[in-house]
Automatic annotation (TrEMBL):
It comes from Lepeophtheirus salmonis. This is procollagen-proline 4-dioxygenase. Residues 431-539 form the Fe2OG dioxygenase domain. InterPro entries: Oxoglu/Fe-dep_dioxygenase_dom (IPR005123), P4H_N (IPR013547), P4HA-like (IPR045054), Pro_4_hyd_alph (IPR006620), Pro_4_hyd_alph_FE2OG_OXY (IPR044862), TPR-like_helical_dom_sf (IPR011990). One of its GO terms (cellular component) is endoplasmic reticulum lumen. Belongs to the P4HA family.
């Protein structure tokens, strides 16, 4: 599943130092470096209590076991061990940045003294002096924190279950401590980037994570000082939460957090309430206002979960109960490799085409892209910029770099009846853009958007003037992950990642106008590293294959 990533670790020589949290390639380098550090320090700690005490300050037992591979795989058969498994797990990624930013400074003085002693492994010294480790910033910790928050919200996970290594149906070997969960609460409350949450939902979310802190505190028998600190912060967050939702005309609270007595009982050690009751209370609280106040909205996340949308039938129509076809479109080229088409939505057209790209080709595409990966940007009035709406890293791959890319384009020309592969004399694309390779860390997201250029300013430039708008999108899934689907928010449909498959849709009506029903977003990846490739097909090259319709708002069909 992650075999190509092992090769990636060897190939990468340069990575971007900024926005490390959104770049799984960069994270893999940090994990590899830290693992060498742990192993070297662990080896010499067996005979020296000083080194052993330092390790205990930096790691809890579960973290140490998972990082140096001493835990039996039979205990967690689903967990991928090694570097690729650590990078694929958002809990491990959070712990990585937490250790380096919060715990490493605490023991740095002792570690620097150790460096001077004879017999200290070189890996220990290299880690302490590493420019890559020094490049990690508080922004990275905030970024991985909100990756966990997105996963929690999108898939309705319980923070305590997440702390125990459970991500949906997957049980992993990761564990978060009470102190780590407490750091999440503080980031939500004190350091919350209002780009993520600007309307008060962060307070309710902080309380749900604080409940996880409480449970772990009792289980780990932490000091009373820590418990009192939690109590104080709980009351403070509740007060801020209620003030935020006060009706300005009456001074009355619009949303009083209903669980105060419940939390007080838990503080006092009352364990009578079941986990099921706790989750129900938490869910009721957050759902009361998350639809209105979350930047993503309730529908986006519920679509990501695959929940049926009652309103969706109004936006979509279907004349047949048949959902899957094997078609060759009377094309001799497709007789030996017919298209395996799954209809996700009939009108407008939304299909998933299975078993398109061989796994060996996918491995090569990743290998060629890996040194080019940088943080993705979005278009804005002031120019392209990085955005928390899109926590993706990407690269562009030219046809000349891999001879099988034109073969993929030729195949889809036969299936879609669109012109895709023609080039200008200089090698640039006429009928479509070059393949964009995108990679998402766990928790990575791209909020609902259209692929088209929506303003005259975007369309009027040298390139677009000659090739037109994006008439259609072809998206290839290059990995298997948990979660990470593509949600179509106006249709109430979701396409699930399946390695080697592709999703196809038209962005324009046949008269060239934009069809906003194809608004879509990338759901948070719950577990795994999500690789995709986008091929945007331009409109002017379709003048003969898909001529403009004289009637307005007519949708194009695949078959």
């Amino acid at each position: 599943k992650f075999s190509i990533i092992v090769l990636i670790f060897v190939l990468i020589e340069q990575i971007q130092s900024s926005d490390l949290f959104s770049n799984p390639i960069a994270i893999s380098r940090i994990v590899k470096e830290e693992k060498l550090f742990f192993q070297s320090l662990y080896d010499i700690s067996q005979d020296n209590p000083i080194y052993f005490n330092l390790l205990n300050k930096y790691l809890n037992k579960n973290t140490l076991e998972s990082l140096i591979g001493t835990q039996s795989q039979e205990k967690n058969e689903d967990e991928a061990y090694g570097i690729e498994g650590l990078v694929a797990n958002p809990l491990h990624v959070f712990s990585l940045f937490y250790r380096i930013l919060i715990l490493l400074p605490i023991i740095s003085k002792e570690l620097n003294e150790i460096k001077k002693e004879p017999g200290i492994p070189q890996e220990t010294k290299d880690f302490l002096d590493s420019p890559q480790i020094k490049d990690i910033s508080q922004d990275d910790l905030v970024g991985v924190t909100f990756a966990l928050i997105r996963i929690q919200q999108a898939y309705e996970l319980d923070p305590y279950d997440m702390a125990m290594g459970r991500l949906g149906t997957r049980q992993t070997n990761a564990r978060l401590s009470a102190e780590e969960l407490y750091e999440i609460v503080k980031i939500l409350y004190y350091g919350s980037d209002r780009t993520y949450y600007s309307s008060g939902i962060e307070y309710a979310l902080a309380i749900t994570w604080l409940e996880g802190v409480i449970r772990l505190s009792f289980e780990d028998d932490l000091q009373d000082v820590f418990i009192e600190e939690i109590k104080t912060l709980l009351l403070e967050i509740q007060d801020e939460h209620d003030k935020h939702f006060q009706e300005p005309w009456t001074g009355q609270s619009l949303l009083q957090y209903p669980n105060e007595e419940f939390f007080v009982q838990r503080f006092n050690g009352n364990r009578d309430m079941t986990s099921k009751e706790m989750r129900k209370l938490e869910k009721e609280t957050v759902n009361k206002f998350s639809n209105q106040r979350s930047p993503w909205g309730r529908d986006f996340f519920s679509i990501c979960r695959g929940e049926e949308q009652k309103w969706a039938k109004r936006a979509s129509s279907s004349s047949s109960d048949q959902r899957c076809y094997v078609k060759h479109f009377s094309n001799p080229f497709l007789l030996l490799q017919p298209a395996k088409i799954e209809i996700l939505n009939e009108n407008p057209t939304l299909v998933q085409i299975h078993d398109v790209v061989p796994f060996s080709w996918i491995d090569k595409i990743k290998e060629l892209s890996i040194n080019k990966i940088v943080r993705a940007q979005v278009a804005a009035d002031e120019g392209n910029k990085k955005s928390y709406d899109r926590t993706q890293s990407n690269a562009w791959l030219q046809n000349s770099e891999y001879p099988n890319l034109p073969k993929i384009s030729k195949y889809f020309e036969k299936v879609t009846h669109l012109s895709i592969s023609k080039l200008f004399n200089d090698g640039s694309m006429v009928e479509s853009e070059t393949y964009q390779i995108g990679v998402y860390s766990p928790g990575g997201v791209y909020l609902p958007h259209m692929d088209t250029f929506n303003t005259d300013n975007e369309l009027v430039n040298y390139e677009n003037e000659f090739i037109g708008n994006r008439i259609a999108t072809l998206m290839l899934y290059l990995s298997n992950v948990d979660g990470g689907g593509t949600a179509f928010t106006e249709l109430g449909k979701v396409a699930y990642p399946k390695m080697g498959s592709s999703v196809f849709w038209f962005n324009l009506f046949s008269d060239g106008e934009i069809d906003t029903h194809l608004t879509h977003g990338a759901c948070p990846t719950m577990y795994g590293i999500k690789w995709v490739s986008n091929k945007w097909i331009r409109s002017y090259g379709q003048i003969f294959d898909r001529p403009c319709d004289l009637q307005k708002s007519q949708r194009m069909k695949l078959f």
